[in-house]
Amino acid sequence: NFRTVVPLPAVNQVMTICKILEGILPKESVRGAPAPDKKLLEYHFVFACVWAFGGCMLVDKVTDYRTQFSKWWVSEWKNVAFPEKGLVFDYYVDEAQCLMVPWDDKVPKFSYSQDAAGSGSMFVPTVEMTRLTYFLDSLVANRHYVMFVGNTGTGKTAIMMNKLRNMDPENMAYTVINMNSFSDAPSLQVMMEQPLEKKSGVRYGPPGSRRLVYFIDDMNMPFVDKYDTQSAIELARQMVDYRGWYDKVKILLKEIMNCQYVACMNPTAGSFNITPRMQRHFVTFAVQMPSPEIVRSIYLQIMDGHLSTGGFDAEVVRLSGKLVDAAIELHRLVMNNFLPSAVKFHYQFNLREMSNIIG
After folding, report:
1. What is the H or E stretch that residue 223 is in?
2. Predicted confidence (pLDDT) per residue in 266-292, tens digit
3. Do 100 and 122 contact (CB within 8 A), yes or no?
4. What pTM did the predictor assign?
């Protein structure tokens, strides 16, 4: 009875297990080396299953399928023991100890930078960011397609952009494509061909020997035509299934090399879902709204960094906690009192408003 954040075929979830395992299992060792520990392999397999089947669970104001899945998993599968505190998603495999340990241990320390604050590119590490970046690092390196699905303001685009900016520029490049209701195949083809260069004959690819990552944001936004298709998504799918798209003048298939996709999607906007023929190619993760404790932690670190490096008096620096609490409480009151309606449909308040104040 579990519901995923978008409809996913069963074969997609099985493929996700294989793709996650590809990134965490040891590569083929030299001849004569000792065999890997079977207990550790079982821990890795359980970890991959938990995220393949449970990482895309729906969490809304009515039901929390993620928590339900965690309780069901712990009660049904007892070979690999999870700590009692929290959910099964709060732990990863420590290979040295062969134990499930909390993700909190892997969260990097935040350091405030005035330059990053001024440019709006500041990023505060959280447990959710650490988990999703871990999977991004593994899957993108193995040339798999990744999709984050979540409501507006969950930080899915920020997490994806943080990963893309930190890639090795000598080996990797990226280009961002923002979809909207006017996006169609001809306009998308022009945008996707801009960063490519001709290699030989009908072969095209990114400059040099680099690998190009297309980041498609709001992938489900293109208009659905009378044939119940979205032409922009069908064109993007051609690159996955047929390794290219057609030159509409010469009527020849352009072979696209060394390119892959990552994507983000809001399941409450646009066409809500995309065609299963495209969805099946993506390892899909649901991105949840951060808890109130995490929200306070994020903005408190930013406020502390700003006040302590901005030359403020000690009395003002001590007020950072109260300032953050007041801003969060005001934001909560605005969200609960200014509700969206047919006329005031733009009353959609999320963490972006908080970031405009403290950021």
Report:
1. none
2. 988 878 889 999 999 999 999 988 888
3. no
4. 0.87
Which tokens hold the place of 203? 């072969």
Q: Compute the residue count for the chain.
A: 359
Q: Is-contact 214 262, C-beta < 8 A?
A: yes
Closest CA to 127 of 352, 341, 295, 317: 295
CA pair distance 33, 35, nearest whole angstrom: 6
Q: Helix (H, G, I), strand (E, B), or coil: what is residue 161?
A: helix
Q: Which residue has the tokens 């090399």?
A: 257
Whether 195 contacts 156, CB under 8 Å? no
Segment 193-215 mean pLDDT: 92
C-alpha to C-alpha distance for 164 and 169, rounded to whole angstroms: 10
Question: What long-range pairs does 297-304 form, CB within 8 A, spacing at least 24?
Answer: 297/124, 297/126, 298/124, 298/126, 299/324, 299/327, 299/328, 299/354, 299/358, 300/324, 301/110, 301/112, 301/124, 302/112, 302/117, 302/122, 302/124, 302/358, 302/359, 303/358, 304/112
Tell me 48's DSSP state: H
Question: Which tokens go with 60?
Answer: 């809304």
H-helix segments, the chain: 10-24, 38-54, 65-76, 114-119, 127-141, 156-165, 185-193, 231-242, 276-279, 292-309, 314-317, 320-337, 351-357
Rounded distance between C-alpha atoms, residue 188 and residue 178, angstroms? 10
| Residue labelled with tokens 């909560």 | 332
Closest CA to 16 of 146, 208, 128, 111: 146
CB proximity list for 75: less than 8 A, separation 6 or greater? none
Q: Which residues of 330-356 are buried (b: 16+ CB within 10 A; e: fewer)?
A: ebeeeeeeeeeeeeeeeeebebeebbe
